Amino acid sequence: MLAGMASPENGGAAGPAPRTPAPGPGPARGAPGPAAPRAPAAPPPLPDASQPRFVSDLDVLIRARYPLIYLVSWEEQRLDAILDETARRHGKALLGWSVTKGLRRLGGARTPSPEGARDPNEALAAVEKLTEPSLVVLKDFHPFLNDPTVVRALRELAHALKSTYTTVILLSPVLQIPTELEKEVTVLDVPMPSARELLDLLKEIAEVVRRGNRAVVDLRKEDAEQLVKAAQGLTLSEAENAFAKAIAADQRLSKDDLHLVLDEKRQVIRKSGLLEYYPTEETLANVGGVENLKTWLARRGGAFSEPARRFGLPEPKGLLLLGVQGCGKSLTAKAIASSWRMPLLRLDMGRIFSGLVGSSEENLRRAIRVAESVAPVVLWVDEIEKGLSGSGSSGQSDGGVTARVFGAMLTWLQEKTAPVFVVATANRIDLLPPELLRKGRFDEIFFIDLPAAAERREILRIHLARRGRDPSGYDLDALARAAEAFSGAELEQAVVAALYDAFAEGRELAPPHVERAIRETVPLATTMREDIERLREWARTRTRAASSVPAEDVPRPPIATRFG
With a threshold of 0.90, does the pTM exceed it? Predict the structure, then answer.
């Protein structure tokens, strides 16, 4: 016994009996105790090992008789089923409360409670009077936590429940805990459905469809895995809607329905307001050159699969693409998402920064949460240097907002565990904070240079074929030589300008039209020759070349004199 601690033996008052974990349903409060000690009841069975981990965590908290548990989730139906199973396993009654239906048994019969139990204070008072071990679920209770009376009642209820076998569970999509309750409430984040849960849902839907002869199910094991991968990040209800829409579209469920499942993710992203969903129509075949980068991406395309996890492969983190403007960095980001059959989200740093103090940091956290909720996904951060430039002087210019946003971004890039593949692009290396370039933020840093002659030939072939012209009818080698120092974007615009000229003349596009458009174009490399040379010199020892073809020297602009 420590000195000074009161006890019955040393004349002090005895404290309350320690709370012991519940082995099983205990006696009802207010009932007379047994005349003689009884052996403890057998502990309830453990949850199924196939259940998500948070179910085991919840089970432990209930066994330990935690009075208040806060579950953060949108999925009421999914949680209803899990809590019903948990209550039966513990031998407890399951009650639910909502502002529309009041306090009632979720089995259907209304629990003995005062009239008007829709009022939160009266509902909390009714919970305190329960005489049987129970799990009580308060749905969407967070708006009432702004009322000091409700907060006080909930705090007193927490103290009262510590001597009972009743647990109150607050279920809400929003985490909102008043300061007074921070030490009373235990928070559990409910993860989105796992791949196994989504696969079980898909199997159940396929079985129902087959049994009723309502549609054709044409799915191999690999196809089902692709659909499940596409549905990861959706709630069970959203995934069920996506699979149902796929069946309703053509009375079939097959691998061709992948885009319909991804469309459901677009709805989730649109509601956030911070991220843009981009359709993934480009492919790596539409990107001319950059063979080293294509090879790197091809070797990592399957790294998000379950066999890769079993093999011990970590999920790729992302890429930083540096290079000259118009050389295909943004196009590559779109092609990665299409080739890997993943949705593409664009993070606009301009939307992150807000005029309200503290809003910018919260906006970034929200954007990250949305991206992780629909993972696996490709997150495209275009021209990242413009959003994060000035972080070093942020304390003097904007009260440190940019520095805090930059710090939060760096921490997430380093520590993220969700399968979010980040593709960041940048044009000006002098604006990039050095902390962004260290290993661990990205898997690799690639430099995309001006295309060489062979790559220019490939880019011209792609753009002519895309616009319905046969590339074999053009001398692509001659056009590539004439377009020296052109970027990919400038080559595309030369083809477009030639089409305008041919259309205006009422003629079919011919090689002279393309040649003239190339002659009339002054490439950006000519006017920014020194900047490009400086960029190349910086990247030579700091980055990996995206192209397997050696870069060509940028020609000097012609020197004009008064003699011509």
Answer: no
**Could you tell me how many residues make up the chain?**
564
Dihedral over alpha carbons 249, 254, 255, 259 (to 10 degrees): 10
Rounded Cα–Cα distance for residues 521 and 526 (Å): 11
Q: How do residues 197-215 score in pLDDT, each as one tens digit?
A: 899 999 998 888 888 887 8
Per-state percent for the chain, helix, strand, coil, to nearest 5: 45, 15, 40
| Dihedral angle computed from the Cα positions of residues 212, 215, 216 and 218, in that order, rounded to the nearest 10 degrees | -100
Half-sphere exposure of 407 (CA within 13 A, CB side): 9
- CA 455-335-289 angle, to 5 degrees, is 10
Number of Cβ within a 10 Å radius of residue 6? 12
> Letter for the amino acid at 455?
E
Question: Cα dihedral angle (387, 391, 393, 398), rounded to 10 degrees?
Answer: 60
DSSP state, 439? Answer: B
Q: Are strands 167-172 and 185-189 parallel, antiparallel or unpaired?
A: unpaired
Kind and range of the H or E run holding 406: helix 401-415
DSSP H helical segments within 30-164, as ranges? 53-63, 76-90, 120-128, 148-161
Percentage above 70 pLDDT, the chain: 85
| 136 backbone dihedrals φ, ψ, rounded to 5° | -115, 120
What does the longest C-alpha to C-alpha distance in the chain come to? 120
Reported as a single tens digit per residue, the pLDDT across 116-133 is 578 999 999 999 999 899
- Burial of 241 per CB tally in 10 Å (0-12, 13-18, 19+): middle
| Nearest one of 174, 176, 183 to 68, comparing CA atoms | 183
Q: Which stretches within 21-63 are classed as H helix?
A: 53-63
